[in-house]
Design goal:
7-stranded mixed beta sheet
């Protein structure tokens, strides 16, 4: 299933990338500076959007099939990027190692949302930023009911993706201070993953 999921991931998202995700990624990532860790880097959709201000880029991706595609894309777009085969649940970096942690469409699939955010906070320097783009539980009751009904099956076929995560609240509970947040539906995407949040939060 992991091999198949990696193979279809980019084609499934292609229309959504063109409709909105590419612009969202660019707006979030282009201004970043310093040492950056991207967790769950997947196939590398973020790579073209990092700017010259990034002095070090570490890409963490535990899935071997995703990482193979990530490595090929990084060789073209970000040849100095460092690849890491560990998940966000077990990052091999010392406390306060990075200026920015980037999370895009990954916190839905981590085993423990609170654990992942705690690790992200641990490796961030004081004042460092968590930059996020995530699909979450839809605030509309009808859509939320659909997400809850589909979640058990969806999780099995979509790489462990949970449709009902309350990621905005979890970011605050993990000790981050929200600086900016946009709540918006992804265009050209299927209903269960359409509602998203994106923005930045700081580590105190």
């Amino acid at each position: 299933m992991s091999r198949l999921f990696a193979a279809v991931y980019d084609p499934v998202l292609r229309a959504t990338e063109r409709a909105c995700l590419q612009a969202w990624r660019a707006a979030l990532l282009r201004p970043l500076e310093g040492e950056v860790l991207e967790i769950g880097a997947g196939t590398g959709a973020n790579l073209p959007h990092y700017g010259a201000g990034v002095s070090r880029l570490v890409l963490s991706e535990p899935d071997p099939h995703m990482r193979r595609r990530l490595s090929a894309r990084a060789a073209e777009a970000q040849p100095r990027a460092e690849l890491c085969d560990r998940s966000v649940m077990e990052l091999p970096y010392e406390d306060e190692s990075f200026d920015v942690v980037v999370s895009t469409l990954v916190l839905c699939s981590v085993p423990s949302l609170s654990g992942a955010l705690a690790e992200a906070r641990r490796v961030l320097r004081p004042g460092g930023q968590l930059v996020f783009l995530e699909h979450v539980l839809d605030p509309r009751p009808g859509r939320a009911r659909l997400q809850r009904a589909l979640c058990p099956v969806w999780r099995r076929v979509a790489g462990g993706c949970r449709l009902t995560r309350r990621t905005e609240e979890a970011i605050g509970d993990a000790g981050f201070e929200l600086q900016a947040i946009t709540r918006e539906s992804m265009q050209k995407s299927v209903a269960p993953v359409r509602y998203t949040i994106r923005g930045t939060a700081s580590r105190s």
